[in-house]
Specification:
- The chain has three helices and five strands, in the order αββββααβ.
- The chain has about 110 residues and is an alpha+beta fold.
- The protein has one domain (about 5-100).
- The protein has a five-stranded mixed beta sheet with strand order 4-3-2-1-5.
- A hairpin with a 7-residue loop joins strand 3 and strand 4.
- Helix 1 packs across helix 3 (about 85-95).
- The longest helix is centred in the first third of the chain and has 26 residues, at about 5-30.
- It is elongated, with a radius of gyration of 16 Å.
- It binds zinc ion.
């Protein structure tokens, strides 16, 4: 039997748990209808707003394209260098489950973050 370091094993477990938490939160955001699509006809790239889990008037901007570079404006994505933050999961789930909302009048189209 191979000896593996307990530390790295635990780190891996923690990472897996973190991913699972992000995924579950993203799924919840999608199910609550907090993913909004912004159409950009110029670039043909779809952007999304995902409403913050904790502040109902805060939105994060997500650029998502399947099998392509995705990006989110939240601090988790930029500071922790995570592969997928909960907002990216939210967009993926919303697309998968057909729960992407059309952008409502309460969101200014020009808002960047
Ligand atoms: Zn995010």
């Amino acid at each position: 039997m191979k000896t593996t370091s307990i530390v790295s094993k635990q780190t891996k477990l923690v990472n897996n748990e973190q991913i699972m938490i992000r995924e579950a939160r993203g799924r919840r955001l999608a199910l609550l209808g907090k993913v909004f699509m912004i159409q950009n006809s110029k670039t043909n790239m779809n952007g999304y707003y995902v409403e913050s889990e904790f502040a109902s008037n805060r939105y994060y901007y997500v650029q998502y394209k399947e099998n392509d570079d995705s990006w989110c404006s939240c601090p988790d994505f930029s500071s922790n260098k995570v592969e997928n933050c909960k907002h990216l999961y939210a967009v993926q789930y919303a697309l998968h489950l057909g729960l992407v909302q059309q952008i409502g009048h309460k969101l200014p189209i020009s808002q960047k973050t």
